[in-house]
Amino acid sequence: MNATALRAGWTRGLIELRQSFTNGAELLSHFLWPALMVAALFFLRDRSFGGVPLGVLALPGILGMNAATGLISMAQQLTADREDGTLLRAKATPHGMPAYLIGKVIAVAGGLLADLVIFLVPALLIAGDGLAVGPGSWPVLAWVLVLGLVATLPVGAVLGSVFTSARAQGLIQLPFLAVIGISGVFYPVTVLPGWLQALAQVFPVYWMGLGMRSALLPDAAAAVEIGGSWRPLGTAAVLAAWAVLGLLLAPGVLRRMARGESGASVAARRERALRRVG
To answer: Tell me, what's the pLDDT at 129?
Structure first.
């Protein structure tokens, strides 16, 4: 990948990110989800598990869950860009596809980081007394977040290449919500049956939440985790495995998808969409 593609991708990503904060509907989405999660923390503040307030346990898990939603955002945006011909135009320009993908990663990752900040500031006011935030918390949050994004965004790109319409993208939503439900975001995963605990540990959402809990919660809170430990090595290993899998699969899948794009395929998808609307 050459410097021209990197510069073009960086510029494209910053433009898309800026547009997401100047478009009314997209700006609302940046605040709506964090607001809902802050409301959930507020209602959990007086409940506890193992002597630890549920709001305190849930806060870092919500951070991890929100970061993992980059997978869905990436898949949805790729699919939408296929339908409206954006990918076809990128394919037709020099270094267009690499620049497009770099830009999309920057836009999605930047939007997620902004959402996390919007959520974290009021969340710390609600649950701050039970947290153990110190100088060592931020480096741990940083490596978990970066590794988590590398583990999920390429997988989102693969899913966006596999599904050919925005309507088909709905097939991803329910399984993803199910994974969130068993990943210990709002309640410790140890209350679930053993087979569900094992299933949760296959997916990166659980490990991103666990890593962020290790950064923000006191050491005593690890007692409610599997094995009574934060398992930093396990967190790094599973997220790295997902990152390697995604980075190995994504380039080939995207190249194959790009080769199949043509004016006729875009027109056919538009025609199907118009028939559905009609």
So the answer is: 74
What is the domain range of residue 196? 3-277
Q: Which of 70, 41, 43 is nearest to 58 (CA)?
A: 41
3-state helix, strand, coil in the chain (%, to 5): 80, 0, 20
- Going from the C-alpha of 73 to that of each of 4, 152, 165, 221, the distances in angstroms are 26, 10, 14, 32
Structural domains of the chain, count: 1
| pTM for this model (two decimals) | 0.84
Digit-coded pLDDT (tens) for 219-233: 888 888 999 999 999
Alpha-carbon distance 91 to 99, whole Å?
10
Query: 197-231 burial by CB neighbour count: b if 16+ within 10 A, else e?
Result: bebbbebbbbbbbbbbbbbbbeeebbebbbeeebb
CA separation, residue 101 to residues 77, 104, 257, 258 (Å):
11, 5, 13, 12
**Nearest residue to 49 via CA among 278, 237, 225, 179:** 225
- Radius of gyration of the chain measured on its C-alpha atoms: 20
For residue 27 the two structure tokens come to 């700006």
